[in-house]
Amino acid sequence: MAGTTVADGGLVEQAFAAAAQRLGVEPGSVEHAEQLAHVRATMGESKISVFRHLFGVEDKAQQANTAFEEAYGKLVDGGLIAPIPGAREAIEELKAEGRTVVLSTGFARPTQDAILDALGWQDLADLTLCPADAGGRGRPYPDMILAAFLRTGAVDGVHDLVVAGDTSYDMLSGARSGAGLVAGVLTGAHDTARLEQHGATHVLGSVAELPGLIARTEA
What we know:
Elements lengths: L5 E2 L3 H12 L7 H12 L5 H9 L2 H20 L4 E2 L3 H10 L5 E3 L4 H11 L7 E3 L13 H10 L9 E4 L2 H10 L3 E5 L6 H6 L4 E3 L5 H9 L1
């Protein structure tokens, strides 16, 4: 969602800074810079997995994740997110064509719901998924994509799946799922080279271009 259908203006990094500081990592320190670099490199991964890598001990990882979700939720409640231009229209166009649309995220369910509520998107997609809904691993594993495939029953095989995202981990999860079309978008974390390196079959300016890409591919 963030970076693909939702513009959050760098709120992930702001929320991370709040979480790290709660665990004693001061902004401006070498440790903070190293951790922030890892956060940027792993955009799209489930946040608890990121914190497990950064802090090692499960208790600290859970503390950091809770602090992150609280901080991000407050920023969302403050009106600091917006739809990527054309994202809602693209989803509505795809649904009008009879396609099934699933929104997934690396955030926990409370944060995902806060984003959906803030945008008025509670009923926009056919299904919404977070890592906990698909076994907890999140990206770059294909679990959420395959959960969407199994739960919706919308297509006959994984090759009929279309995956779109703004991070290398989105591309990896799409490629690993067997999706026939894995589209990177340039409205978020990573550039064309990185998206293609990790499995993008196409790179778009934004998700607003996705219905057109699907139509051309089918033609």
